[in-house]
Task: structure prediction
Amino acid sequence: MGSSGNGFANNGNGQKGLLAAIEHRWRFLNGFVRHPNTVGAVAPSSKALAAAVCEPLTRAPRPVCVLEVGAGTGAVTRHLGSLLTEEDELDVCEIDHDFADIIEHGVLNKPPFARMMARHRVHMLRMPVQALPGCGKYDFVISGLPLTAFELQDVEAVFAVIRRVLKPGGVFSYFEYQWLRRTSRMLALGKRRDRIRAVNSYLTQNLRQHKFAGKNVLLNFPPAHAHHLRFDN
Result:
């Protein structure tokens, strides 16, 4: 239906979109305040960051099987909707109940995912990453987990699971905020500094050994790096 000459229809749709965006940002901020060690950000990822972290998927032969972990309010999930076909498969893993509700009811049950959901090619997994089953299932794993906020043993456990569930030659993509690790090391004290240094060393080692591509994304708050790894390297 076309817009009317007075522009009220467009203003109404725009207002609804603005209110939805504000609600998502508020719920994201609320999640950060309640669970900073599992949310790890004060705002959802931008479209530019979502595109950067999904970039290897754009060149992949189809069909593909994708796992998204730490999906938050679904910023990356929404971008995946523009890339995946009905023959692809997507599992979305999110432990936060409120975020999982937003994704399941506000994203996955609507186009373009609705037909994939009806064919059971999209699944919402409400569980910690460490509990994911299976071996060698996914072509791509895309992560929004705040790894730098975790204890070293938790980061190691997450990487072990991702390596287990990826197919040979599969790609693990994640992002981290620019300067965060360096700034955290400088400002942290005591045991917190030791934790950050240990996690930083582990992540740096994996990037040196397995990273094959990446991108700096300035159009995000805060600016971020997207990293792409293959553990077969």
Notes: The chain has one domain: 8-229. Residues 65 and 134 are 13 Å apart (CA to CA). The two ends are 52 Å apart (CA to CA). The first strand starts at residue 65 and ends at 69.
